[in-house]
Amino acid sequence: ALGDLIGVEPLSPDVPPSVSKQTYLGGTLASSTIVSKRMAWENIFMVETVRSCPEMCRFCMASYLTLPFRTAPLEGSLIPSIERGLKVTDRVGLLGASVTQHPEFDKLIDYMMKEENKHVRLSIASVRTNTVTEDLAAALASRGTQSLTIAVESGSQRVRNIVNKKLEQDEIFAAVKNAQAGGLKALKLYGMVGIPGETEEDVTATVEMFRQLKKATPSLRLTFGCSTFVPKAHTPFQWYGVEKESDKRLKLLQKGLRPMGIDFRPESYKWSVVQAMLSRGDRRLTNVLISARDYGDTLGSFRRAFKDHMGEVPPLEHYVHTKMDPSVNSLPWQHLQGPLPIQTLIKHVEEAESFM
């Protein structure tokens, strides 16, 4: 019960040895069925504009597991959905991992900018950095948007190459300058520490990037939301563990960014450890999770639960920090077939390691 997982096999001959993910390929994506001031996004009618993401950053389950990239047709889905929502609210949110990569995005913005829609407040989920133009920022600002969110991952080009983030430093600077020139008040950038292959020098490069961004756009309020890398199923980085130096690197960022006026918002490293345990855990953790729940679902409750079941399950270290070998280790979900075969994921790991 304490060793590495070597495989998952069905207990009954009636059960297939593997199950393939089913993918909806229809032309209509999701939209809100309830709009209320009690919702997480108050009184906003949410419209799914795209599903999946074509960029395929190597840590991102939202891209890899939801392939292929799909877009809702403008006339057949998006506009009818928005018109339905505008009957009950004047706030519209466009959802998707990469909304601005919709092939008809410019036409969608033109529709939202019509005179009859001038009362509408428009919000957009995270957009691809190199699609932030001054015109887009101005259009959004005219419809009540004060801030945009972009994901840059790191100020280090080497780290962005490792994760397959097809983004150059000058594109980041252009996006931030365009946001300010277009009239937006703030810009939130997302990033990560503990990416496989990252060094302290890469973290220092992120601090230096923000120093230059702040100098270039002094009137723009910059926020940096930073998480710790956590391995996710069906991604090339599923075999990597959490980097133990991540907590130190978050503190390094905090020390460097807050004195220059950057609103630095790190996610808890300790909760990232719990996330990793849940992400890569297998059925042997059942009793540990039950005990953690009984202890109150606090950070301490998980360590207490592991202590209670010591000798029955592998240690927390095994699930959180261990780098797995795809030629030796099986993962708990390996019998579930995602959009890409495991050989392709391994190839993408090899490409990432060529930059490390």
Task: Give an account of the 3D structure.
There is one protein chain. With 356 residues, the protein is an alpha/beta fold. The chain has helices at residues 61-64, 74-85, 105-112, 134-142, 157-162, 169-181, 200-216, 246-257, 269-280, 286-295, 299-308, 316-320, 342-353; strands at 19-20, 45-48, 50-51, 70-71, 91-95, 121-124, 147-153, 186-193, 221-228, 263-266, 336-337. The strands form four sheets. A four-stranded parallel β-sheet has the order 7-8-9-10. Helix 7 (200-216) links the parallel strand 8 (186-193) and strand 9 (221-228). Helix 4 packs parallel to helix 6 and helix 7 packs parallel to helix 8. The radius of gyration is 22 Å and the shape is globular.
Please specify the SSE layout and strand pairing:
Elements: E1 19-20, E2 45-48, E3 50-51, H1 61-64, E4 70-71, H2 74-85, E5 91-95, H3 105-112, E6 121-124, H4 134-142, E7 147-153, H5 157-162, H6 169-181, E8 186-193, H7 200-216, E9 221-228, H8 246-257, E10 263-266, H9 269-280, H10 286-295, H11 299-308, H12 316-320, E11 336-337, H13 342-353
Parallel strand pairs: 1-11, 2-5, 5-6, 7-8, 8-9, 9-10
Antiparallel strand pairs: 3-4
Helix pairs in contact: 4-6, 7-8, 10-11
The count of helical stretches stands at 13
The proportion of residues in beta strands is: 5-15%
Provide the residue-averaged pLDDT.
Answer: 95
Strand neighbour order, sheet with most strands: 7-8-9-10
* Oligomeric state of this protein: single chain
Describe the main β-sheet briefly: 4 strands, parallel
SSE-based structural type:
alpha/beta
Shape descriptor = globular
Alpha-carbon distance between the two ends: 34 Å
Q: Helix-strand pattern, N to C? A: EEEHEHEHEHEHHEHEHEHHHHEH
Low-pLDDT residue spans: none
Give the radius of gyration. Answer: 22 Å
Beta strands, count: 11
Q: How much helical structure, as a percent, in the residues?
A: 25-40%
